[in-house]
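Honest question from a wet-lab person: if I give you the sequences of every part of a complex, can you actually get the arrangement of the whole thing, not just the pieces? Trying it with mine:
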Amino acid sequence: MALERYTKEHEYIRVEGDIGTVGITKHAAEHLGDVVFAELPAVGRHVTQGAGAAVVESVKAASDVFAPASGEVIETNGAIVDTPALVNEDPEGRGWFFRIRLKDKSELDSLMDAAAYAKDAKGSG
Amino acid sequence: MKVISKVSEPQADLDRTPLYALHVALGAKMVAFAGYEMPLNYPTGILREHLHERAKAGLFDVSHMGQAFLIGPDHKTTAAALETLVPGNIAGLGLGRMRYTLLLNGEGGIVDDIMVTRSSSPEEDGRLFLVVNAARKAIDYAYIQARLPDGVKLQAVTDRVLFALHGPEAAAVLFRHCPKAESLWFLDATRAEFDGIECSVSRSGYTGDDGFEISAATDKAEEVVRALLQHAEVLPIGLGARDTLRLEAGLPLYGHDIDEATSPVEADLAWAIPERRRAEANFPGARRILEELAHGVRRKRVGLRPEGRTIARDGTRIHARDGRDIGIVTSGGFGPSVGGPIAMGYVATEFANEGERLELVVRGNNIVARVVALPFVPHRFRRRT
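Yes, you can. This is the full assembly:
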């Protein structure tokens, strides 16, 4: 069963076993506007919780995407490099960014669940 | 996700155009621009708004820009007064004609780029209509006012809105309400009636496409806008798409591609300085500019096409293939009609050649880019052949 967690910075991570799928939330994608470019980490790269791991650009601005948890990048989503609009169309589904093998699952405890995120996102911009 | 952006959320002390309520009612995302709260985009989104303008017609509120009259006893006098501040041919401006020109400072730098229109009515002889950038209007007016001779005055217009209606369907749409506009060629202007409402219309603008700029009384603004928006061909377009459109058209944006330290020659705008003015050498900074025309400039504005998909935004350093720093990007982003990243910037003149391959340093990576001729998308003005 997949576990879903969210960061204050509007990333999500969907965890199955040791593998986490990372992307930006619907809220983030709406706020961003039309996505025109995504830059993904190289497979094999180690990312650290809270540090920049990818970049997503809308027409007006570039945004850092932070790793919700630490781990090794095992797969990246070429579909959003070819078709950046996928991030707007289905940010929490086909618009995922990269997958990591989690280094330390206890890091997930510091993240929000869906209900907490929904509340937090409502309050913020 | 953290947004690294220069687009700011509006604050309380911003000005609003008369159409503010309508923008909000249409669902616009409002942002701060040049001291105004302006629509960045509507629910359509920047990409689709841009593509819609190129395919059909887009309506822009540009009421934040400065509108002013320069008023003297006759055209000869008023034109002569303006010619002390700009390098263009204003004396020779025909009735109902307009021109792009540059307010220059004593060092030959650009204070602002402006449009100047001479009325088509002989009764308005002596009046020139100026449209200036929103972010510069206070500076421009002060600059001009301090340098006017007795008998010529500057009068800011504060009771009129300004719209742009652009795109291949703009003409057909406008003529339904304003038949007189049909006779206009690129850079013509006239007084006309829009559904019986008095307005000024010019065939000009900032997208590279055919289109019109319409000035009307503030209390008629909403009526004109609603009349235009009722047509299926027309969508409201925000500043986000206005910027991507003008960038694709290779048009400079003050504060980015041109500023007080930039000369018209460096900016590739020397075409705006006709022979007579060069011969007379009677505009601010003439010595520097003529010297540059004769002996060349150290840097030039060029168009750039990054290879691949990486976007290079303004401030990006430009390197030669051997690693030397040779310039900077001054406008950059994604071109929706081009379908990829585009940029304009200044490079050392020896590299300012079409086809030259350079490197743009983006997030520590060297992205290869080619120098290309501007515009990125061909202009479609209605010119007399």
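Two things worth pointing out. The interface with chain B takes residues 9-11, 24, 28, 32-34, 36-37, 39, 55-66, 81, 125 of chain A (CB under 8 Å). Strands of chain A lie at 3-6, 11-16, 19-24, 35-39, 46-47, 52-58, 62-66, 71-76, 98-102.
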